[in-house]
From TrEMBL:
Coiled-coil residue windows: none
Pfam families named among the record's database cross-references: Orn_Arg_deC_N
GO molecular function: diaminopimelate decarboxylase activity
Catalytic activity, EC: 4.1.1.20
Lyase among keywords: yes
Range of residues in the leader sequence: none
Keywords for this protein: Lyase, Pyridoxal phosphate
Gene for this chain: lysA_1
Protein name, per record: Diaminopimelate decarboxylase
Orn/DAP/Arg decarboxylase 2 N-terminal domain residues: 84-281
PANTHER family listed in its UniProt record: DIAMINOPIMELATE DECARBOXYLASE, GROUP IV DECARBOXYLASE
Length: 499
């Protein structure tokens, strides 16, 4: 048997540093975060307290280097198949302008979802041909700006189509548009969506609008087909692409100059180190809801599941934090899937059509974390501790029930004004909103070395949606500042969005 000393000798300084950072907080059933080295270095170093002191709690710290790596990996996959391809960063996933600037530098595009997003991207001098607007609600002002600037509009419904045509006529310009489609057949079922025209209805509709008596499309340049599927299913996207290839042929035959197919976002990513931990968590959570295990969550919250007369109903309302085919590899398998006489990549290449996508979360993997200061510790009568943290739940939350990643606790370096809690306590992180439900994480957490006022709680890998998707200024709390770390200069400065 090898000695502990021999094992330690084989452990790199980076691994030792990561292990130390993780040692102060974990879930009662752990969900260990994947950590980028730059995040580990910040948590292990001395710069974080000064940054929180300067910019306030909570603070979002970001780095564009992983963004560049993640985007480049997608281009490399497409290039290996000799495919005309472009990435459009889904800006709604993170508001920081540093990522817009990085996208521009990389030569990729930006997907905008509001008038303000589009205005800021245009002000950043991203070329209009590298911008698409996919806003769920498009005001007249937004449509006008798209038309005037030359931004492509992803058209969702007939009202939007007709309003765009009317405005383009008034402006005497041709609007660049892509028709958004849905209603794809998959394994004998039509995939439901609130977005887009039904694929079975689009040709008759366009044919009517193209007729001489109507001629509603004369000011529209219909150059693309667009879709966005909910969830992260690879096979559903393959089905959608396979159904759109003959549609593209038919539209081109009817003199619509379709030159690109946009498959939207939903590229999966993995937040966790261990598949086993992920599976164990859900197995244990189900047992807890059935009364067979102590609760893992605050007041035995089901996270989408519920026990009804001893039977579990519902489904998890959380992101699938562990996935084992992600990002560029997931995308590559779509391109290599069978289609017609070859692969999907072959079918696209034969048609001389550009493939586009609009990832957000997945290309922000590793790009940021959120840090906040501990302000109080409170022992409940049931033995649980409440750890009060200077932030609110909207500052690290999406529309799902919880953030299922173990936070990190960074102990205060100087003496705390009050003693640390006892070692080995367990409890919950609570936030600043004055409601009973104001938990930053619903999972019960263990603190092997206790907690002190002034310690920092770090939520890792929050750049994709968690920081900004739901953030709120209720109670007049200021929004978190966004600070960009430049690895080349080792300097930090506020993102221009906070100027």
């Amino acid at each position: 048997m090898k000695s502990a000393e021999q094992a330690a000798e084989r452990t790199s300084p980076s691994e030792l540093k990561t292990s130390a950072v993780r040692s102060y907080c974990r879930g009662t059933v752990p969900l260990t975060a994947k950590l980028e080295p730059w995040i580990t270095n910040f948590c292990h170093g001395t710069a974080l307290p000064a940054l929180v002191q300067k910019y306030g709690s909570p603070l979002n710290l970001l780095n564009t280097e992983p963004f560049q790596r993640n985007v480049t990996a997608l281009y490399d996959i497409a290039q290996s198949r000799d495919l005309d391809f472009d990435v459009y960063f889904a800006r709604k996933a993170n508001k920081c302008l540093a990522f817009v600037e990085t996208a521009k530098t990389l030569g990729c595009g930006v997907d905008t979802a509001s008038l303000e997003e589009l205005q800021q991207v245009l002000q950043s001098q991203v070329p209009a041909e590298k911008i698409i607007c996919t806003a769920a609600i498009k005001s007249e002002e937004l449509l006008r700006l798209c038309i005037v600037s030359g931004t492509t509009i992803a058209i969702d419904n007939l009202d939007e189509l007709m309003q765009t045509a009317i405005l383009a006529g008034e402006l005497n310009q041709r609007a660049a548009v892509a028709i958004r489609l849905s209603g794809f057949q998959h394994q004998g079922t039509k995939l439901p969506s609130r977005f887009g025209f039904d694929i079975e209805e689009i040709v008759p509709l366009l044919q009517d609008l193209q007729s001489e008596s109507c001629n509603s499309l004369q000011h529209l340049n219909l150059s693309g087909i667009h879709f966005h599927l909910d969830g992260y299913s690879q096979v559903q996207r393959i089905s959608a692409i396979q159904q759109l290839l003959p549609l593209i042929d038919e539209l081109r035959a009817r003199e619509f100059p379709i030159r690109f197919l946009d498959i939207g976002g939903g590229f999966p990513m993995c937040y966790l180190e261990s598949k086993t931990e992920w599976e164990t968590f859900w197995q244990t959570q189900r047992r807890a809801l059935l009364g067979e295990h102590i609760p893992l969550t605050y007041r035995n919250h089901g996270l989408g599941l519920a026990s009804v007369e001893g039977t579990l109903t519902g489904k998890p309302n959380c992101y699938p934090y562990y996935q084992n085919l992600v990002q560029a590899d997931w995308f590559g398998e779509i391109l290599s899937s069978a289609s017609e006489a070859g692969t999907i990549a072959d079918s696209l290449r034969t048609r001389n059509i550009q493939l586009r996508c609009e990832p957000g979360r997945s290309i922000l993997d590793g790009c940021g974390f959120t840090v906040a200061r501990v302000e109080f510790r409170k022992l409940q009568t049931n033995g649980d501790w409440l750890i009060g943290v200077s932030m609110n739940r909207t500052q690290c939350r999406t529309s799902s029930d919880d953030f299922l990643i173990d936070p990190l606790l960074i102990p205060i370096l100087e003496r705390s004004p009050l003693p640390r809690t006892p070692a080995g306590i367990s409890g919950y992180l609570v936030g600043a909103y004055c409601t009973e439900s104001e938990l930053l994480s619903l999972r019960k957490l263990l603190f092997p070395h206790g907690v002190a006022i002034g310690d920092f709680i770090v939520f890792p890998n929050t750049a994709g949606y968690f920081m900004h998707f739901l953030e709120s200024r209720s109670h007049q709390f200021p929004l978190a500042r966004n600070v960009i770390f430049d690895a080349e200069t080792n300097q930090c400065e506020c993102d221009a969005i906070d100027a």
